[in-house]
Each structure stands twice: as structure tokens, then as C-alpha cells.
């Protein structure tokens, strides 16, 4: 599922730049529309087989939210040729591991096997695509699993409702307004036929990308891809509906009481451009300047010097259609959430009115290079990135070239992006506070 708030807050906290080697790959389409990407890496006898489907929570019926994430669980139940409960046994008994995750925009499945089991991984993912068994016992079982996940990660997790509260206030027409895990009431009300219809619509080869990365023989892998995937029927082409939000023209104020916390948090959230835009990348640099590490502007002043906050952060959370820029802080005793937000705002104003120094720009470029190298440091990371760049960005080779975009960003662009998007009049301010004890004495 989605990363936690604190993990997102440290998204760019990587040290030391390194040399990035070009990621070589080959890509092509099968006649049924399945996009195939092959990457050979002989450095270790490991192969990743992954399939990313272009379906996320934004593709759901507003009365049936949670379907995309539910399928992340449901499609491990079994297939016509893999018995119920056997999926994980097959993977582990053959020296592998597997997982899946869902976002608002896509769903991703993968297996990691020793390279002598490359064919097994390809067969298993073809089974998931062609022969899933979707029956009532599987739906009922996974319904309970998802409910338990919601209790652990959202309902009983400190600050677990933060994303949900931000999303529902930031978006009024776009499906980003609901959470990826969705509504348990919607899942309870859904019929077996609705689940089967969702599978038939979205889990089709022409809505997916298959990546095989690692210690592979390219020619042999192509033969296996043809053997297991070429005969899967093409589905009805999908048109992903577009939703346009009206601009935020005055501050949205909201409050949420969380029974799982003792310390209040202040959150300012701004709507930002899609992940594919240059400005989204510029805003990544803005967040790095403001809160990446103990030498960052917000941390150094608000936490270290003035001791107004015990925690402060800023990050740009970009998605396929829109992004949300978060600024958040937890005040120290003796200070209010508003004190923390006021201090954060002062640092944003400085960024909007003054160019950063040459030294800061060089530091940013080093951080981006380090982030880039780290993202492609494992065959699992490369497989994920190849899938993402093809499916959501429309350019697989960004795995090699996106760093050039970051390196070309100027100090002036950083100032203008902060000025354009981080305005007080076009944001949500959320008071995220401990729940009040309503018991009468």
C-alpha cells in the first residue's frame, strides 16, 4: 500500500552522489497490446517478473471504492491451474518471493526468483492475467484481510487518517478524493459479478506492461513471453476518464480529531501539477531545500535553532493527474501549531523572493544524483521504474534521462515554482489534533 507519512517525508534523504550507469532495455508490443520490456543484468543470478496494470483507485465507481486495492489481495487467491492457497507455496518452494502494491493510478505485481526459474515467474503472471479464479470464498476471505489492514494502518495508526483528510478536502470532483484502501461498506455491498466485471475490464493485456529484468537470456525470454502471453485475448480498449479540478482561490480550513495521537500536527497542503510535468520536478527540489536533512532550511531554523517543532517536513507527492505538496509540523510544548506554520511560511516566502545560492543548487544536484542511483541500485528497483516510466509517464527511457531534467533546473525556476504553487490563498490548512475526551465527570 501507500508509503507512510514519515517515509514520504524522508523520500529524498539520501547521501552521497554516485556514478549512474545507463539502464539498457528492449521493449516491444504483442499483438494483443501487452507491452513487454526486457532488461538483462548478469551481475546476480536473480530475475524479477512484474506486471503493472493501469488501474488504481481513481478508476473506481464512487459507490465501489477500494476495488483496485482489493484486487491486489484477491488475485493471489489462485487460478485455474494454481490451487487456492498455493501461490505463495509455489513461490517460496522455488526460492522466490513476491508482493504487490496499489496506488491511485496503478496496481503492481512481481515475483523475484533465482534465474533458473524465469519461466515459472512468467507462467504465474500469465495465469493471473488469463485464468484468475474469482469466487465468493476468495472475496469473503480477502474482505476480512483488507478490513484488518485498514484497522492496523489507518484506523488505529497514529496520524493514519491524515492522507484521507487531506485528499477529501483537496479534491471535489477527481477520484483522488478518496483513499486507495476505499470504503469497507462499499466492499461489503459489492456483488461477485461486480468483482468479475472489474477484472474483465482492467486486467487485460492492452492495459498492462510486463517487465522481465535480471539474469535473463533475451532470446529465450522472448520465446517464453510469446508462449504464455501471446494468446491472451485483447480486452476492450480502456479510456481513462479525465477530471479537472477548479483552482483553489481561498484557504480551505479543516479539522480532524484523531483518537490515536497525543500531539497535534499542523498540515498545509497545496494542489500541484501532474508527475509528468517539469514543474513537479522543480517542486521536488523545493521540498529538498526546505526539509531534506538537518541542514535544510526548515529543520535548521524551526527544529534546531528556535526549537518550535519536534518535527517538520515538506514534500511533493506527485501522481498521474495532480500532485499535493505537503508541509507539516508537530509543535514543541509551549508553541502552537499555528506558530509552527507561521515559521514554515516565512521560509517559503524567502524561497519565493530570494534565489538560492550556488552552493545550495550544487547540493541539490548531488542529492538528485544520489536519489537516482539509489532508485536503480537493485534489479527490483529497475523493474519497478521501467514499468512506471512506461505506464504513467509514457517514456520508458526516462529511467536514463530524468536525471538530466533535474540537473537542468535553474535557481529561477525554483523561485518561480514556489511563488506560483505555495500561496497561502490556494491551500488547505488542516488542524490534526488529539480527540477530545467527551466523557462527563
What does the model show?
The protein is of the alpha+beta class and 441 residues long. The chain folds into 2 domains: 24-229, 2-Layer Sandwich (Cytochrome Bc1 Complex, Chain A, domain 1), CATH 3.30.830.10; 252-434, 2-Layer Sandwich (Cytochrome Bc1 Complex, Chain A, domain 1), CATH 3.30.830.10. The chain has helices at residues 5-9, 67-74, 87-93, 118-130, 136-155, 162-170, 184-189, 192-202, 218-229, 278-291, 297-305, 337-353, 358-375, 379-393, 398-408, 411-421, and strands at 26-29, 35-40, 46-53, 97-102, 107-114, 208-214, 252-258, 265-272, 309-318, 323-331, 427-434. The strands form 2 sheets. A 6-stranded mixed sheet has the order 1-2-6-3-5-4, with helices on both faces. Helix 10 crosses helix 16. It starts with a helix and ends in a 7-residue tail after the last strand. The model is unreliable at 1-18 (pLDDT under 50).
Compose a concise summary of this entry.
42% of the residues lie in helices and 18% in strands.
Number of strands: 11
Q: Report the mean per-residue pLDDT as an integer.
A: 93
Strand order of the largest sheet: 1-2-6-3-5-4
CATH topology (fold) name of the largest domain: Cytochrome Bc1 Complex, Chain A, domain 1
CA-CA gap between termini:
42 Å
Q: How do the SSEs run, as a string of H and E? A: HEEEHHEEHHHHHEHEEHHEEHHHHHE
Present the secondary structure layout.
Blueprint: H1 5-9, E1 26-29, E2 35-40, E3 46-53, H2 67-74, H3 87-93, E4 97-102, E5 107-114, H4 118-130, H5 136-155, H6 162-170, H7 184-189, H8 192-202, E6 208-214, H9 218-229, E7 252-258, E8 265-272, H10 278-291, H11 297-305, E9 309-318, E10 323-331, H12 337-353, H13 358-375, H14 379-393, H15 398-408, H16 411-421, E11 427-434
Parallel strand pairs: 2-6, 7-11
Antiparallel strand pairs: 1-2, 3-5, 3-6, 4-5, 8-10, 8-11, 9-10
Helix pairs in contact: 4-9, 10-16, 12-16
Pfam families: Peptidase_M16, Peptidase_M16_C
Protein name: Pitrilysin family protein
InterPro entries: Metalloenz_LuxS/M16 (IPR011249), Pept_M16_N (IPR011765), Peptidase_M16 (IPR050626), Peptidase_M16_C (IPR007863)
